[in-house]
User: Fold these one by one.
Assistant:
Number 1:
Amino acid sequence: MRPHRLLIPSASLLLTLPLLAACAGEGEDSGDGITVFAAATERSSMDAVIEAFEQAHDITVTASYADTVELQSTLRTQLSAGTGPDVFTVWPGNGNSAALQVLQPAGFLADLSDTEFAGRIAEGDRAVTDVDGATYLVPVTYAGIGVLYDTATLEEIGGEAPQTWNELIDLCGQARDNDKVLLSLGNQTDWVTQLVTYSLVASLVYSEDPTFDQDLANGQASFTDSGWRDAFEQYLEMDEQGCFTDSPLGTSFEASVSEVAQGEAVGVVQVTATLAQLREETGDAELGMFALPATDAPDQTLMPGAVGAAYGMGAEADNPEGARQFLEFLGSDEGQRTYADEGGSLPALPDVDFDADPALQTLVDYQADGRTVPFMDQLWPNPEVQQEHFTAVQQLFAGDTDIDQALARLDESYQED
């Protein structure tokens, strides 16, 4: 999942790797340098880290960025050909073709267990950073999914952050009465489609069944016969009640952020990393965040929260020593602070002295209270489930499928090897 100058560029800006511009060390001797390939969503944070790293090390870093889908396909092709970058984005856990549980079994990742940061990773995060007791990623940010909103726009419609499902639906009508929408929704961008579902599922599934992922893996649960059905139903109900942009399938991620910045929408359901882009577009606006309620019992509301940005090193890296130094920097207090501060996120490693953006206080509180659940795709066994989810939501909004078919396809894709 992710998301900074964050999240993904429009289709017109998709870049293939040979055309990607170097963002550090351009024109310098890179004989002792390293190459970094990262998601476009992480550009501002990575640029800031590279600048700090190069000031402290005699190593040139050449960084390239690509849209998430482009990165996943290009990276896999390069790694298979033995021409991959030294350091690159790796999604924690499972769920897509550039995720830990996909790349590590293929032999594409170097073992990082002997690094200093490996010993600092929180035990609860090792399920998505380690394989068979060995560490293959440096987790850099802790991200959440919730409603990022402009407090002035919320006040303008006479509303306040909803605590229950009924309050949420009422607020959608209140926004419409004031010629706005409560939530901009960019479902034209495929990865955006998952965010509302995840937010609803956090409460509708995990508040009653914290072991759902294990039950699913053991064949004792299914998408069809779980709170996932309720989540899809409520997702569509929100659309019917006018909670979203008039044409979600015709709205991109970038356009959805701009709708909030321009005051056309109160907020947007997004990963916390999007806060940086919102701040860039809204200037001095005061931004806030609330968890998307899915029930009428506030104490049942949970938030998706998990390791966000993470990086690994190629098993065949051209400069393994330099790559390790760079990853150690990402895992240092300075690297964690620099990356998180620039991107409006939280450090992934515990005990890092860090002043969080005030807009992220909700996530900080939910994390401290143990009221977060992992991003759902991080624990899925293959990338097909996430892709099926993207497609299912777009087809539901287009009226080309129904909830029964969508859930059945998720169950089927989950069983694929």
Note: Confidence is low (pLDDT under 50) at residues 1-31.
Number 2:
Amino acid sequence: MNHENSHEKNHENNLIIHTQGALGIITLDRPSHLNALSLEMIQGIQAQFEAWADQPNVQAILINSNSPKAFSAGGDIRYLYDAYKNNTSNYRDYFVAEYKMLSTIRQYPKPVLTFLDGYVLGGGFGLAQACHILVSSEKSRFAMPETAIGFFPDVGATHFLSRLDDIGVYFAITGEQMSSSDALYLDLIDYHVPSERLAELLEAISYKPELDQLQIEQIISRFITDPASSDLRALTAVIHQHFSPATIEEIESSLAKEQDPLHQAWTEKILNVLQQRSSIAKQTSLKLQHVGRSLSLEQCMQLERNLQDIWFEHGDLMEGVRALLIDKDKQPKWQSHNPTLIKIIDDLTAA
């Protein structure tokens, strides 16, 4: 068996593609941008999955990263901003391609695994969630930080966060990060493997002449360790207490009234975070989390897609990106109220 195959580095789409044994490997290779997913990267991943679908020598696929800091810091929001400002429809093309890629990965007939070893944020979190077997090291930090830029958690988060009920609401509207220990506790990853052993794990998997999901999981099980204890576990009761109300106003009011000295520092910090976020983004994110609980994955994805296309026109994303990435003044001027958008969201979520 030819164990080592050629590496094909594509500078145009920031992917390194190669096979190792029966494993096809797609390495995200845009470290200067913490692997923010460009349209070319998304299209490249899609094309590679299609190419490997009927190649019997590729029996499983691994998506990993060439950045020591991140799996992926999310979508290419600078590209989306520029596309909209230049009056092109490229921002819509981006989401169409991204959602097609996510569906392709989720429905892929061969096992798709991912190694997470650093930041897993936004669109990177969505990409990881689409994979079938998720392995994370202690270095990973997970978040859906969209409300910080006046957007809402998308890429399937309406489904995968809403399954966590109030804890999903907490992560969706605050954008707070979780550790790999927290992610394992919440069942958002499957296995915890120390960072220093991921290369060895890759070798072990690629030495198998035949690969199926069971064999891959049996190999991984030899490498897993117990992570540090989850900080989130100790916070679950207080999160349930404050993030179960039906409106943002009630959630913020609840946080402001915390009486327990053990939790006051935390509730003050979280309330301060929430008060800096876009009101329309918080309200939408909350509504999506509540509605998503009773929808299928496909329905959640469709709802997100419908909202994405109107958000550029009516939402706070452009202002959020301007304040954080373009002018970097960190002083976003959020809309105080947008009845048009609220009505559109109500209509979409009622459908």
Note: The first helix runs from residue 39 to 53.
Number 3:
Amino acid sequence: MAEAEEAAGVAEAEGLQERLKAYEGRVAVASGVGKDPVNAPMIRHWCEAMGDTNPAYRGPDAVAPPTMLQAWTMGGLSGHTGRPGRTGRSEAYDELLALLDGAGYTSVVATDCEQEYLRPLKPGHVVTFDAVIESVSERKTTKLGTGHFVTTRMDVRADGELAGTHRFRILKYAPAAKRTPVKRPRPVINRDNAGFWEGVAAHRLLIQRCAACARPRFPWLPGCNACGSQEWHAVEASGSGTVFSYVVMHHPPFPAFDPPYAVGLVELAEGVRMVSNVVGVPHDKVRIGMPVRLEFLRVDEELELPVFRAAAEGGEF
């Protein structure tokens, strides 16, 4: 009996995989048109949020930051649906997601994206785009659970000429049964940011200061984005700042995190901004301009992270 049930399960999985594979190459988005032409105000907002002061993104000959490629295709809260010539995702893509939902893979998480830049986008360019379902993986087992990776490839055009490609990958999965507490994902430490994490281990928040133009910067980079110099010094930040912007995370639920919680873009007294959790007040009490103070939060026996504690409403730190 057990062998028969196992054989039936294998056959069912193979049948599902065959149906999933049939969606590869099908249209995910057809003849999409950006809601707005490439424009200077959106470029400015992006650069202010990212703290990017590169002069190439300002003035009469400005170009858009390459990493904004997907931003010009996004439908925002109202989406693209119902606007003639401005389509959203296709029926085929919705059918694929419904098929995965019906097979029990009801949770979703974005895993990664890849972008290739072929020409600069400039104010006035009209952005159009098409996307295909590039691949649906075989069933994979991850720490989150078992499921399938779905990859779409979007071709982005400026005034009809290919400007870049954007590959976006999600995991549709059935959550694994919780057996033991799941640790937070580990930060990626490399030669460019190792000094920052060494500072965190010593309860010091280190930023960089360019040795040539004295401009502070964060996150850590190998060169100055203002003057290009590769010479710099590590400087300890005071730890005081204000909430420049924030979001409240509700979905998707993710092991080791307990939504809802506030993630802030904090402007430090030194003039740089960093992303971290805002703690000390309920998530719905976080406000732009709220003063915050650095502290270090131990999340497990191996990992401490810098977070920012807000004063309770009307209170002190």
Note: The longest helix spans residues 2-21.
Number 4:
Amino acid sequence: MRSTTSSIPPVRRRAFLGAAAGVTAAGFLTACSGGTKVGAGENDTGDAPAFGGGEYDGPEVTLEYWNGFTGGDGPHMKAMLAAFNEKYAGRITVKNTTRRWEDLYPAMPTAISAGKGPDVAVIHNDQIATFAVRGTLIPLDDVVSALKLTESDFIPAVWQAGVYEGKRYSVPLDVHCLADYWNVRHLTRAGLEKAPTDREGYENALKELKSAGVSQPFWMPNKWPAHLMFMSLLWQFGGELYDEEGTKALWGSDAGEEALAWMTEQIRKGYSPGQVAQDAQYNAFKNDKVSFTWDGIWQINDLKSTAGKIKWDMASIPTIGSTPAVWSASHNFVLTSQAGRDKNKVQAAKFFIDYMSERSTEWARAGMIPARNSVRAEAGVARLPQTQLAKDVDVFRFLPALPGLGDVQSKALELAVQKAVLGQQPPAEALSDGVKTADKILAENKQKYAK
């Protein structure tokens, strides 16, 4: 998965998805996490020291910090790091290593086991369970307790996404989600001031745009971000992805069929070509050919480069079903078992995580929605276009915390969506076949990641 930011080409996002799916048990530390202990075996140093908050008062320490911010978000993260290192010079030095997500995730477990990995890192929420179950991460319950952080300080869904098996393994930095982008001139031509927010209005808008001369106003992708669109619609129609035990895929339900049928309907009605090449829908939007496109908020800064070519605006994706909902993800700070071998690194890393989370105003300029309520409330942040999407935080939906979920998503759900959108199978048939594959992988994961 590429960094979910504005200026990174979509090909990096696709590469990450494959890499995330390929991070298997063989590549992870085989030790399991036990309470606040670090990984067992050669990495076992006993209980990690508790975090008491306040200022770091230990000896001078250097922290290795890994992240995947290789695109337009990178300079913003580096600015935050520079400010931290300047303020705490002589006490804590944070050394930054930036790698592509598709390289970072497979490399982390082996590097941590060898003592050559990160002490603190940023990972996506859908990776937390997989890393946690293999003892690669140290719980952060003492951090949130000492700082008196609660769900009320954050967007609730992203706060909950950092918990696995009753323990907190992350502190969220941001939320990023899909958004509905539209071509202002196209809508004006069709007599529309802005994008409609409900199914009837949206479908009527597509009809009016076609009548106004935009032959195919809403291109439907069969790959990225088609599966994110499908999940958003699934939740809107009242469906769920997986059961609570993580043993059954539920997206082959009536809600799933309704969601996928709506996607294929856009092709049947002539609003989209039948076979949209990878990234073609976004490139067509940037080149004034498409009226609507659903894509991530990480595209905001990239679209700013189109000034003079197109005039665009954005809002939450429309509610096609009965309940507003949108696929969302999050970058999260985590503490690794490598840091757990040194009590001073543990303390410094926990202090660093809190500092970066609380002072994430700069990160909002990278196109992200700050996870912390206090940051989103700042005047300069509240005015940013992506922050407007967080007016109703209940719409954000996240993938469940299931170890090895990347395999299920890429090898089952994404393929089912692709086959239906390409017309290779009817939606119901594609979903049925996909669920069978998903259930098989889920069963294998139960064994693979068993404690």
Note: Residues 1-46 have pLDDT under 50 and may be disordered.
